[in-house]
Amino acid sequence: MDLEKPVVPTGPIRVRGDLDPALSRWLWLVKWLLAIPHYIVLVFLHIAYAVLTVVAFFAILITGKYPRALFDFNVGVMRWGWRVTFYALSVLGTDKYPPFSLQPDEEYPADLSIDYPDTLHRGLVLVKWWLLAIPHYLIVGAVVSGGVLAGGGDDWGGASISLLSILLIVALIALLFTARYPQGVYDFVMGLNRWIIRVQAYAGLMRDEYPPFRLDQGACETD
Question: pTM, whole model, 2 decimals?
């Protein structure tokens, strides 16, 4: 009898987010507040990330390589940010407090890894972060910025709300009344966040593979 082999993610960018099956009904109300120490650290980390990306731009342009130390640091910043996002912002999939670390952690419910490229295209670095990524920027912008009008009137006034925000509101209402995060909503939210991270990695010059126009839903990629 042949045993089915487990599906192992093989893509160069892997985003994992394991949904906590026992989420608190109420903790999401204060997670954003509890994560303030992380926000402060991430402000400085993202400043360093931006500076090092500029340094990497010139290194790739001249040598065709992303300096390994800079690459590992910037991936670490993305990993840290993803854990905080997963905990307190655009997923809310765990009650476990994120570690203050740039390093991988298989024990934490959320993690991120990007394979280091041996070489990168020198010419592509000039256009991929702005021109080539424009279609993805438009999609990501529609997902994370206000896309649905709330309110009305003759002039269509009122506030707008993003698709991601709508999904999170649905999830939190369900969590409040049933103590369960709807699996379908969770899978879709993970797919949107995974798309955003792939675009960030591409625009951050970390890979030459163009991000796919698809939602890879669920806790981890399956191809």
Answer: 0.90
